[in-house]
Write a structure and sequence with these properties.
The complex is a heterodimer. By secondary structure, chain A is mainly α. Chain A is about 65% helix and about 0% strand. Chain A has two domains: about 80 residues, Helicase, Ruva Protein, domain 3 (Orthogonal Bundle), CATH 1.10.8; about 25 residues. Chain A is rod-shaped. The chains are: A mainly alpha, B alpha/beta. Chains A and B meet through helix 3 and helix 4 of A and loops of B.
Chain lengths: ~150, ~180
């Protein structure tokens, strides 16, 4: 119950943070989410002239008070969808978001089912063999003599 | 596990492996290294891949296929962030004054911000028209980075060559002008 409450509070806190990030994006944040078109890395890892050019465009957008979506939309209009490091959360791009989650769920179900079947299929431990009553009696006598 | 269920699971696993293999082969076949540049290096002269892109100056589009059979052309791949492109584009601008009536000069501004590209053209006095290839898909078909890349296309649409040595510019221009 406590864990559920923590998750709920964290989710409540995350919403205004995401909203603030959308309205007032930072240069560092966008540089980590936008690709350099000629180097195959995000902008924050590149100092190539092409990356510098996009960094300037982002800085101008932030200075002009544009939202994160407005800046990203402008970049996508110029360079195409591939300029964003993360795939879009609609259409075909949704696959990239949901496929890993689906994979984890399927793997968990398969492992769970396998474990359940394995635990059911195990043979019960063999019961110890019963001694012949005469032999048991003789053994007890021997033990008593040994201890005396 | 029951036999039919096991067979189904095995078939599914096999299908996934085959699917991944097909994906790998497709990726290798459609690799960006299979461009015009690489074909020319291998001694082939393919037909220029068509494109229909918006002009930087906002005056509609340029459809490369529509020029086939009408005029030979010089195709200049450039970007405003590309320092060596300044020198090459200026040379083409000068050549245009001599060959402009017989040869079409077209720039392809690639992986670039169009506002910067327009400013760059004005700043360096480049007057031949350019189209905007923001995502670089057209550049990939012609061989990809690095730029500048300059190609010479005969009137028939066949790519005659790529400028590798600066001194070859007059020879290529004469060759396509006479095609």
């Amino acid at each position: 119950m406590k864990r559920l409450a923590v998750v709920f509070v964290a989710a409540l806190l995350a919403v205004p943070l995401a909203h603030a990030s959308e309205r007032h994006p930072t240069q560092a944040e966008l540089e980590g989410e936008v690709m350099c078109p000629v180097c195959g890395t995000t902008l924050d890892q590149s100092s190539s002239p092409a990356a510098q050019q996009i960094k300037r465009v982002i800085a101008k957008g932030i200075a002009a008070g544009q939202t994160k979506s407005e800046i990203e939309d402008r970049l996508v209009a110029e360079y195409g969808q591939a300029i964003l490091a993360a795939p879009p959360r609609h259409g075909f791009g949704l696959l990239a978001w949901w496929l890993p989650i689906a994979g984890i769920v399927v793997a968990a179900v398969v492992v769970g089912l396998g474990a359940w079947r394995w635990s059911r299929a195990r043979e019960p431990a063999p019961r110890p063999a019963q001694l012949d009553p005469a032999l048991e009696h003789r053994l007890d006598d021997e033990l008593r003599r040994f201890e005396a | 596990m029951a036999r039919p269920a096991r067979l189904t699971a095995q078939a599914l696993a096999l299908a996934v492996v085959v699917g991944l293999l097909v994906l790998l082969v497709w990726r290798v076949v459609h690799d960006d290294n299979n461009g015009i540049s690489q074909a020319l290096s291998a001694g082939r002269h393919p037909t220029a891949p068509a494109f229909d892109l918006k002009r930087l100056d906002g005056r509609g589009t340029i459809d490369l296929a529509s020029l086939r059979g009408k005029k030979p052309l010089v195709l200049d791949f450039w970007a405003s962030w590309c320092v060596p492109c300044i020198h090459e584009s200026k040379r083409l601008e000068a050549a245009r004054k001599r060959y402009g009536d017989r040869v079409a000069f077209i720039g392809v501004d690639t992986k670039d911000f169009s506002d910067d590209a327009r400013h760059w053209q004005r700043e360096h006095g480049i007057s031949y028209p350019s189209v905007h290839d923001g995502n670089g898909k057209v550049l990939a078909k012609w061989g990809g980075l690095p730029i500048p890349k300059i190609f010479f296309v005969a009137r028939s649409g066949k790519v005659v060559g790529e400028l590798v040595v600066e001194e070859d510019l007059p020879r290529y221009l004469r060759q396509i002008a006479e095609s």
